[in-house]
């Protein structure tokens, strides 16, 4: 669906309303703990206000391309279909840079999680 804009938009019109309704229903359930949602399209959907915080993990275009193991054309189609990283970064509370190792990313996420918990009292 990433190769053709019209096909992707038709697919999104079918899938996204049901997906968003299910997500909203899940978020509305009473809970005692923090709920974490991993969804790359939160900024594109414009639902940032559904969450206490939205985080974005970013890396340079060079790093992203080097990590991509699939077809390069598919990669380009996916990247063009999404908001540019700078546009996403402008719509979130925390930006996590991911230029180094998996271990470094995990350490950074743990640090940000602890910071979030301290700041929010959770």
What does this molecule look like?
By secondary structure, the protein is mainly alpha-helical. Helix content is 57%, strand content 7%. It is built from six helices and two strands; from the N terminus they run H-H-E-H-H-H-E-H. It has helices at 5-28, 42-45, 61-67, 72-81, 85-89, 102-120, and strands at 55-58, 94-97. It has a two-stranded parallel ribbon. The relative contact order is 0.13.
Q: Characteristics of this structure?
A:
122 residues; mainly alpha; two-stranded parallel ribbon; 6 helices; 2 strands; 57% helix
Task: Give a topology summary.
Layout: H1 5-28, H2 42-45, E1 55-58, H3 61-67, H4 72-81, H5 85-89, E2 94-97, H6 102-120
Parallel strand pairs: 1-2
Give a quick precis of the structure.
The chain is mainly α.
Instruction: Outline the low-pLDDT stretches.
Output: none
- What proportion of the residues is helical, as a percent range? 55-70%
Q: H/E series, N to C?
A: HHEHHHEH
- Cα shape: flat
Instruction: Please report which band the strand proportion falls in: under 5%, 5-15%, 15-25%, 25-35%, 35-45% or over 45%.
Output: 5-15%
Q: Assembly state here? A: single chain
Radius of gyration computed on alpha carbons: 16 Å
Average pLDDT over all residues: 94
Number of strands: 2
Q: What structural class do helix, strand and pairing data support?
A: mainly alpha
User: Major beta sheet, specifics?
Assistant: 2 strands, parallel
Q: Between the first and last Cα atoms, what is the distance in angstroms? A: 40 Å
Main β-sheet, spatial strand arrangement: 1-2
Q: Helix count?
A: 6
């Amino acid at each position: 669906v990433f190769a053709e804009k019209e096909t992707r938009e038709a697919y999104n019109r079918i899938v996204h309303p049901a997906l968003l309704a299910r997500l909203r229903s899940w978020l509305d359930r009473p809970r005692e703990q923090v709920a974490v949602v991993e969804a790359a399209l939160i900024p594109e959907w414009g639902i940032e206000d559904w969450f206490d915080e939205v985080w974005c993990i970013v890396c340079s275009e060079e790093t992203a391309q080097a990590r991509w193991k699939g077809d390069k054309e598919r990669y380009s189609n996916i990247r063009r279909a999404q908001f540019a990283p700078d546009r996403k970064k402008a719509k979130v509370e925390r930006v996590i840079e991911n230029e180094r190792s998996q271990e470094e990313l995990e350490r950074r996420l743990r640090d940000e999680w602890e910071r979030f918990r301290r700041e929010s009292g959770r």
